[in-house]
């Protein structure tokens, strides 16, 4: 049964007095069906022709209103996930905390969510809350106006109705789009406690859209930032990629630091943060995030392992140095052990998949191999799978550290670009330098011996 506009408004008022539904007719907004992906349109129309309500919602509507192209299209409906599945052959149901239907069109996935409702005390089967007020399960279905109240920000609670091409703006999202404001729906404290990841999302959208965070939405973040410690590590891994690896990483990191959020995700590196952002760890963070942003802009491939390797490098080296003393290990073994230790700590908060932690170790290990270039070693290193990543990493260290590291990075730069004969000459030079150094060492120890011999 279709609800008319007045019914919906009345209900929204009854349940949640702050929300006032504003409906924009087709003539009053600029979203056209041409901007919506064909797959999303197919899903919307199939739901509608099967007697369900179907709306485009979230980032799709928000980004189109801002004149941007959405990264994906989210749909919401009054059909349950099971009903959605029956309509589409290419559909699978996912999620425990949030049960959703994914409709697959080749590589494109259209996400279909059923309207969320409010939680009743006796609905333990479908929803549950932790002692801190965090929602652990969220599968109570409801009406569209309840669904709007459950969304995070006003600009994410606008619904494009496929039945008449109107936009239903429940929380003043249109006005906030115009004022360029990220504003939580409802009481910020409560909404962050329900789901602390909303703090990260506030920062992410503010940076990506170049919006300000509205005052009351920003105010509780710093104090509530430790709540992120309760979020499962798999979810934080996904979020950390969205924050740092989607083209706005550098600015997002600085904002996260400002609100004490970065420190929650990477507790082991906060000790290396300084007032003026001048420690090697901070310089490495700036360089690696800036280069990731640049690569994304240029359409190049990126590997999250590189960023994690960069974030942790100097804290890891520092730990290795303490291990050399305390465990009496050689440098190589100390680095390997410190690497393991620090990655073990990190995966407790951010569940980096094993294939990435393996690459992080490879990049680190290469740093120990780069100085050793004599004989066939340099030639062999060039053929190693992760050589390029390792070399880019060395170049960044060169910028941070200067001196010998920078010289080493320059040597490798020249070596890669040189022809066969030149490469051989460079390696021979290393051999000469090494034997000179060895002779000098011998002389020195000889002299020391001699001087010890003197009575
Ligand atoms: P983008 O996809 O561009 O990152 P988005 O707004 O579409 O942005 P999604 O994560 O795809 O973000 O979520 C789709 C919509 O679901 C959001 O716009 C919002 O309405 C709702 N939503 C997502 N996560 C939450 C959350 N943690 N709390 C409340 N609502 C949420
Ligand atoms: Mg989305």
Automatic annotation (TrEMBL):
Keywords carried by this UniProt record: ATP-binding, mRNA processing, Nucleotide-binding, Nucleotidyltransferase, RNA-binding, Transcription, Transferase
Catalytic activity: RNA(n) + ATP = RNA(n)-3'-adenine ribonucleotide + diphosphate
GO molecular function, one term: RNA binding
EC number(s) recorded for this UniProt protein: 2.7.7.19
Region annotation (Disordered) ranges: 436-455
Residue span(s) of domain tRNA nucleotidyltransferase/poly(A) polymerase RNA and SrmB- binding: 210-271
Biological processes, Gene Ontology terms: mRNA processing; polyadenylation-dependent RNA catabolic process
Domain Poly A polymerase head residues, every copy: 54-183
Domain annotation Polymerase A arginine-rich C-terminal: ranges: 329-443
Pfam families: PolyA_pol, PolyA_pol_arg_C, PolyA_pol_RNAbd
InterPro entries reported in the protein's UniProt record: NT_sf, PolA_pol_head_dom, PolA_pol_I, PolyA_pol_arg_C_dom, PolyA_RNA-bd, tRNA_ntf/polyA_polymerase_I
Compositionally biased region (Polar residues): 443-455
Active site, per annotation: 72, 74, 152
Role of this protein: Adds poly(A) tail to the 3' end of many RNAs, which usually targets these RNAs for decay. Plays a significant role in the global control of gene expression, through influencing the rate of transcript degradation, and in the general RNA quality control.
The family this protein is said to belong to: Belongs to the tRNA nucleotidyltransferase/poly(A) polymerase family.
Record HAMAP family: PolyA_pol
Protein name: Poly(A) polymerase I
